[in-house]
Specification:
By secondary structure, the chain is of the alpha+beta class. It has helices at 23-30, 76-84, 97-104, 110-116; strands spanning 6-9, 12-15, 35-36, 38-43, 49-54, 57-61, 66-72, 86-91, 120-122, 128-130, 135-147, 150-162, 169-171, 174-176. It has a single domain, classed as Electron Transport, Fmn-binding Protein, Chain A (Pnp Oxidase, Chain A, Roll).
Length: 183
Amino acid sequence: MASRGEFLIAGFYHPAMDELVTPDEFRAALGRFASGVTVITVETAEGGVHGMTANAFCSVSLRPPLVLVCIDHLAETYLHLRERGLFGVSVLKEEQEALSEFFADPERNPDAAYRLGIRYRKMRSGIPVLEDALANLDCRVVDAHSAGDHSIFVGEVREVLVAEGTPLLYFRGRYGRSATLKD
């Protein structure tokens, strides 16, 4: 039985909602977790390409090859991904910080895309990914879970391309590089 200030979710006791950490506390704590930086790309219904920067990305399983990405319900990418069920992942190199910034901006300027020289390649399935990334993955959504203000999309990886280089890192709200991670 749950004690006062707790409630039961899926068989587990949880503290009452008013006892949870604040968004600022949560952001500060998770900012201490260094992550790589990816750009998630989807083909739009009109045949264009839409992308967003994501560091809430990780592997799930080797057999079958599965990854997950977490996407805000208010993000344009969320709507395209729900509609299409297919997405690409481009793992960024350390020199691609400007690409991450571009795709993180919800009101991106098409002139900026031209100045940055953003180019896409199609994977065998036709999924667009960024050219010259550290790695590219072609994914088909096999499961989705709503979690707070995001959805967790689980994708089966159907094709990968791998290149040489060093990853772009994200830590405490800033980009970083690590000379110790060279190939």
